[in-house]
């Protein structure tokens, strides 16, 4: 079951890919802001981030394709969304990535507020990216050990891109924000689906947990 309560069986590859690649927008935009070290939007260059972190982007996309069994057409959604092309990063987009937690203060573009939005947004979007990726891998029936190893590489690359939390921190966030809803007694997940999510969590825990 996904975060919005729908069984994974209802999802096409295109819908699953959208769930995976939308949080990637937050990851790269927040990463570009964090890379400045000033948290001033005038200093942000998403093009510089993508040029300097091309290896992480390649690892992330390769891991998603391997674990989630997306074909070339489905993978193209990552590019169609525009996150992996240079574009301006705005305070409004950071507000969305951070779930509006800060509200709309008068000084929305101040470095202190921008840094806070980046901290919250990185936690939120990385946990969403992990959950969407595991959901897609479970739907594709990718064997858990192989799929989780690929997703461990995805998570490591995504955390490096974001300049935010460690993979082990994101794993903990995912458990409490998403996994518990899949595994709760009243969820719509099948027994096989629950077992698959537990298997992915087990491998990821062995990889990342301190």
Description of the molecule:
The structure is a single chain. With 210 residues, the protein is an all-alpha fold. Helix content is 69%, strand content 0%. It has 10 helices and no strands. Helix 6 packs across helix 7. The radius of gyration is 17 Å and the shape is globular. The chain starts with 12 loop residues before the first helix and ends with a helix.
Instruction: Please describe the biggest sheet, giving its number of strands, its sense, and whether it closes into a barrel.
Output: none
Q: State the helical fraction.
A: 55-70%
What's the total helix number? 10
Kindly estimate the percentage of residues that lie in beta strands according to DSSP.
under 5%
Helices and strands, in order, run as HHHHHHHHHH
**Multimeric state:** single chain
The pLDDT mean sits at: 93
How many strands? 0
Q: How far apart, in Å, are the first and last alpha carbons?
A: 27 Å
Low confidence ranges: 1-10
Assign the structural class, choosing from mainly alpha, mainly beta, alpha/beta, alpha+beta, or little secondary structure: mainly alpha
Name the features.
210 residues; mainly alpha
Topology:
Layout lengths: L12 H24 L9 H7 L1 H15 L3 H4 L1 H4 L10 H7 L13 H29 L4 H19 L4 H17 L7 H18 L2
Helix pairs in contact: 1-2, 1-7, 1-8, 3-8, 6-7, 7-8, 7-9, 7-10, 8-10, 9-10
Describe this structure in a few short sentences.
The protein is mostly helical. It has helices spanning 13-36, 46-52, 54-68, 72-75, 77-80, 91-97, 111-139, 144-162, 167-183, 191-208.
